[in-house]
Amino acid sequence: MPRFVFHLLANAHLDPVWLWDWREGLNEGLTTCATILDLMDEDPELTFIRGEAAIYAHIEQTDPVLFARIRARIEEGRWEVVGGTWIQPDTNLPATETLLRQFDIGRGYFASRFGKRATPTVAWAADSFGHSAGLPDILSASGMEAIMFCRPQTEIVPISKPVFWWEGCGGSRILACRPLAPYLSEHGQVPELLDAALAAAANHGLVNIAFPYGVGNHGGGPTRRQLRDIAAWAGKHPEVRVEHSGMHRFFREIRRELKTRQPGFIPTHQGELNFCLRGCYASVAKFKFAYRKMEAGIVRAETTSTILAAALEKNQRDFTPGWLGVLFNSFHDILPGSSIERAYEDQLAQVGSVTSESQAAEFAALNQLANRVDTSVRKPEPDRPSAVPVLLWNPHPRPFEGPVEIEAAIDYRPVSQYRNRSNELPLRLLDSRGRRSSFQTVATEHAAFESSPWRKRIVTKVKIPALGWTVLEVGWVEGSSPPSVPNPATAPQGGTIDNGIYRVEARKGAKGLEIFLHGRPLFPNGGLSVATFADPWGSWGGMLEEPESFTFGKPEKIWKISAVETLESGPERAALWVRFVGGNSRLDLTIQLCRERAAVDFKARLFVNERDARIKLIFPQGGDAEFEVPGGSVLRKPCGEVPGGRWIRVTGRDGSLGFASDGLYSFDVTPDAFRPTLARASRYAATRRMNPKEKLWMPAVDAGELCFQFLLQPGDANLPALAAELEQPPVVQIVPPGKGEGLGRSGSLASLSPPSARLLSLRPSGKCIHIRIQLNAARRSGIVLQWFGRPLPLGFLRSGEIGVWKLSPAHGGQWKANRLATH
User: Fold this and answer.
1) What is the pLDDT of residues 670-726, one digit of tens each?
2) Domain formed by 4-276, architecture
3) Ordered DSSP codes for 709-742
4) First to last CA, the chain
5) 490-716: what CATH class?
6) Secondary structure of the chain: what % helix, strand, coil (to 5)?
7) Distance between CA atoms of residues 393 and 366, nearest Å
8) What are phi and psi of 663, to 5 degrees?
9) Given the DSSP bridges, would you call strands 163-167 and 268-270 parallel, antiparallel or unpaired?
10) Rounded distance, CA 433 to CA 418, Å?
């Protein structure tokens, strides 16, 4: 009787974008699948696995005959649909909702084309560069029962058996397998790999062994030689039953086998499966920044459009086409920054298209709201322009309180009466109840007609209801002035700004920016600084995981402050502009302290002109750090360059530091410092290390300007909310004045409690709405949704759990909520 069963998993790894563009990649899917089907006609035992709904959709649209042949083999049971995603994504960098949509849309496509029985429940991550601690929770919430993956390898993350239970940071547990063979093989390599798998299998005690094979990276799959080699090897090894199989069959057999074993026979791995190819966390920042903007923008637009359509009884908009762009660009050789330059030109164009469509949808939805809201303005003085109504929209399920900027045209052309007295033009700001509000005039976005006022820009502190709106009125009113405010932000002296909570000081020639919290240095061992580190590694960093490729010791250059200027001096906001220079590059920081705001806000403009170098911010506070990651958060000790999400909380001997950004993904923490990577000046799609003078004709990645934002705060419970508002700020929209149709000047449509309940998405589903929520709390909590003025108890979620509810309109304008089972 055979000791082992080897499950042969024929596959053809196809990167639709990598060393080629998306057109070549998708068309290779046609060639590969046709070749596999022809080989199946020759060999009646051959089975094949294929994931990624995007490939199937391209085949369906381009070659219906080929698609019909695939469907026939699926019905026969020899062609297996695996993975469940639209594309095989990176699993460290996308947002939680993006990974959930991969399965929503991917599995939905497969179910619609091939039926429920063929819809995959096994995830397939052949080539993704490590996996988030929250991925089991995402998989469980998506109806997936198991995952097979290949990275990181055993020498990076040792686990005693190739099959194990994987438990996520939210407590979900799925069955996982890291095969004893790589997902691809050279033409004549299969016997060698089978020998190695057999030797390893003897040490693990499992009968069922997964064995993927097939040439690939640019399509391919099993070859005739490989099939002959497998048959010959099987004839020489009677102790092994070699079967052409599939992933679902393999995991079914594993589950049957485990029923015969003692509890604990296979290990349980808790937390993330990381790290590998760490250069990808920072490569091609210009794409990563654009991707993050697209990703946040479509979530905000979809939430806004969905709830307003329901409230105003309008037709719902389908955001699926935009989401397909988001999903495709999360592919594990696009978002991580490992493709060629020409491919990124295409992908940036696609990202821009999705961003633009999201903005247009959001704009239309808010104009529909404005038509229903009272946006009327006070009667103007004789021969004076009327004031401007401004609609503010909060896309979050909790009230927003903080600063917003408003820029509007005060008249229809420059105001000649105030020529050379632009700062004296009297403005009045009224809140939604018609009360005068405090504000501060700041510089406009333009430098046209500087001697005469025309457009004015103000900053003011506002309160906007949860998933709601408020209307302000700003205009030219003679004799008006803003009321005084308590606790103003100030610029007490050159190079210093203060809001009573934080103080920031900058000095020309210094190496760091000094920051004080309640009068004490935030960083006792120095200020915020910028440094350049040697980074000769290619797009992926060290291909052999060389430690020096992800640990950075002494920098090559510490940058210096070359210029300082006070831009704003209060009372609503004080702002300081600081330029750091180092080597051939510079970093311009506009640091803002807002009245009564317990955070330091930074707008960054980085000009990169380096080669084979890495630019980092350095905050001299280190220790353990909690990182937001897809599906949750994870606590890490210093371990070199690691991926992170929207926020990081560093806890060391000097206290706690909270950091959030709208574009950065790559960080390292040492016992003494927290160091976000801003950019890597590597080469496109390069696999080896180079020196700066080598191949000068090859462009350095990210040469030019990069813009992003970040903030610092005390590392308290408010950090995730501030990070969400940084990424999805309130919308400020100038709208026409009007009496509206029954809606007041301020209102809320929905809210969530407790505050730890995180709204992941709000999206239409026919006449109903699906709402997805994750609980970010230490213990099980009940969730209550306030929906159009009525409470809808949603039941309980455990810590880290993700739930989906269907909201359905009922009689009398009421709604009901039903939790959806994992599908």
Assistant:
1) 999 999 999 999 999 999 999 999 999 999 999 999 999 999 999 999 999 999 999
2) Alpha-Beta Barrel (3.20)
3) EEEEE-SSTTHHHHHHHHHSPPEEEE------SS
4) 39
5) mainly beta
6) 25, 35, 40
7) 8
8) -160, -15
9) parallel
10) 30
Average pLDDT, the chain: 96
Pairing of strands 122-125, 146-149: parallel
What are the start and end residues of each CATH 2.70.98.30 domain in the chain? 490-716
Q: Is 606 left (phi over 0), alpha (psi -120 to 50) or beta?
A: beta
Domain with CATH 2.60.40.1180 in the chain: 373-484+729-747
Q: Alpha helices, DSSP H only, in 17-149?
A: 22-42, 53-62, 64-76, 96-114, 135-141
Which of 626, 624, 599 minimizes the C-alpha distance to 776?
A: 626
Strands laid side by side in the 750-753 sheet:
750-753, 781-787, 790-797
CA nearest to 404, candidates 459, 366, 452: 459
Cβ neighbors of 717 (< 8 A, separation 6 or more) are none
Q: Which of 87, 95, 106 is nearest to 759 (CA)?
A: 95
Token pair, residue 280, equals: 């990808």
Report CA-CA distances (Å) from 577 to 63, 83, 561, 784. 57, 49, 11, 44
Which tokens go with 662?
């709208």
Distance CA(103)–CA(630), nearest Å, equals: 14
| Tokens 């052309």, located at residue | 413
| CA-closest candidate to residue 550, choices 693, 680, 363 | 680
Quick one: pLDDT band at residue 812, thresholds 50, 70, 90? confident
In tens, the pLDDT along 454-502 reads: 999 999 999 999 999 999 999 999 999 999 999 999 999 999 999 999 9
**Nearest alpha-carbon partner for 604 in 662, 555, 561:** 662
Strand order in the sheet with 768-775: 757-765, 768-775, 802-809, 815-819
Q: Which of 206, 212, 200, 127 lies closest to 158 in space, CA to CA? A: 200
In the chain, which residues fall in CATH 3.20.110.10? 4-276
Q: Phi then psi for 301, rounded to 5 degrees?
A: -65, -40
SS3 label, residue 238:
coil
DSSP 3-state assignment of 315?
coil
Which residues are 753's β-sheet partners?
Answer: 784
Q: What are the two backbone dihedrals, phi and then psi, of residue 692, each rounded to the nearest 5 degrees? A: -60, -25
User: What's the mean pLDDT in 39-68?
Assistant: 98
The DSSP bridge pattern shows strands 468-476 and 388-394 to be antiparallel
- One-letter identity of residue 189: Q
Question: d(Cα 396, Cα 721) in Å, to the nearest integer?
Answer: 9
Interatomic CA distance for residues 114 and 365, integer angstroms: 36
Q: How far is CA 193 from CA 13, 139, 182, 197, 221, in A?
A: 17, 30, 9, 6, 16
Residues near 781 by beta carbon (within 8 Å), at least 6 away in sequence: 754, 756, 757, 775, 796, 797
Closest CA to 468 of 291, 730, 228: 730
Domain at 373-484+729-747: CATH architecture: Sandwich (2.60)
Q: Position of tokens 């760490």?
A: 278
DSSP for 362-405 reads HHHHHHHHHHHB----PPPPTT-PPPEEEEEEE-SSS-EEEEEE
pLDDT for 286-314, tens place per residue? Answer: 999 999 999 999 999 999 999 999 999 99
Q: Which residues pair with 416 in a beta bridge?
A: none
Residue type, 759: L
Largest Cα span, the chain: 100
Whose CA is closest to 749, among 461, 364, 430, 399? 399
**How many CB atoms lie under 10 A from the CB of residue 432?**
22
Q: Is the pTM of this model over 0.90?
A: yes
Is-contact 314 577, C-beta < 8 A? no
Strands 624-629, 647-652: pairing is antiparallel
Cβ neighbour number for residue 707 with a 10 Å cutoff: 13
